[in-house]
Amino acid sequence: MKKLAFLGILAAFFGVFCLNFKTPTQPTISSNEPGTLKWYTWQEATELNKTKPKKIMIDVYTDWCGWCKKMDKSTFMDPKVVEYLSANFYPVKLDAEQKADIVFNNETFKFVDTGNGKGVHTLAYSLLDGRMGYPSVVYLTEKYERIMISPGYKEVPDMMKELKFAAENIYQTRSWDDFSSDN
Fold first, then answer.
1. For 27-182, CATH number?
2. How confident is the model at residue 133 (pLDDT cuts 50, 70, 90)?
């Protein structure tokens, strides 16, 4: 009887413990507090884009990426970045190793196991053209056309420059190299 009670308590503890973990489709940072960035899942952003079109900025990350975490705590917390991103984009967090399927444009993107418990999500692979470095930021138009892929950690001034390049449609008349060298 004591054994059964112990197992019941253990099962209850384990259930509560598991509820504290986020599912793979949730963004790692999400807050509705003033001055913080509201991150969307891919599904949320594409649904919102149907009724209120906006460009999409995708932060492709992994849980083990130190530079991703640093960017979350610094660049993506900066008030200028938060304000500009919120006004001009649907910011999306995409875990490049998430296991949950994503359905988009009648195509199902899945996790592909590459061995030893490692793998890649095919949506991340597609967005990054197979160049799987983290963090990477992908900018898309309202019609899901890629504006640019930007690999690596970004300080606030560099992020602001990229955001303006995409949001203000500068990419339509100038290359990124020309724009970034002038600014």
1. 3.40.30.10
2. very high
